[in-house]
């Protein structure tokens, strides 16, 4: 599998887009479109997770080179992103399982928590990539 930061950020971005469109589709009662978007978001996130692990097994730790005000901003975002990224995995699995079993009342209850957390993790993943690899990239990365 080819794994790199650009691929990982693209997968996070695609997941965020699918989540947003999926949310709009369910609000418009377009159930099939919602289902397709959410399954695509799950697929993007799953491929991201594998790609991310493969990349960091080979690349190791990439140090943030930013200084000054941006440093605590970056690490605050990274910390919240990391904690919520761990938390979102079981939430997505539960929401997906409930939907696939047609337990829509229970699906809706957990999806209300899952959606904003998952969207935050996807969007901050892209922002972390931009900060780490473009705006404040260490030399040689």
Give the topology.
Elements: H1 5-27, H2 31-59, H3 70-100, H4 104-135
Helix pairs in contact: 1-2, 1-4, 3-4
Mean pLDDT: 94
Rg for CA atoms: 16 Å
Query: How many structural domains?
Result: 1
Q: Number of helical runs?
A: 4
Give the termini separation: 20 Å
Low-confidence stretches: none
Structural class: mainly alpha
Helix content: over 70%
Q: How much of the polypeptide forms β-strand, as a percent range?
A: under 5%
Could you walk me through the main structural features you see in this protein, from its secondary elements to its overall organization?
With 141 residues, this protein is mostly helical. The chain has one domain: Four Helix Bundle (Hemerythrin (Met), subunit A) (Up-down Bundle), CATH 1.20.120.80. Helix content is 82%, strand content 0%. The protein is built from 4 helices and no strands. It has helices at 5-27, 31-59, 70-100, 104-135. Helix 1 packs antiparallel against helix 2 (31-59), helix 1 runs antiparallel to helix 4 and helix 3 packs antiparallel against helix 4 (104-135). The longest helix has 32 residues, at 104-135. The model has no long low-confidence stretch (mean pLDDT 94).
Quickly list its features.
Four Helix Bundle (Hemerythrin (Met), subunit A), 141 residues, 0% strand
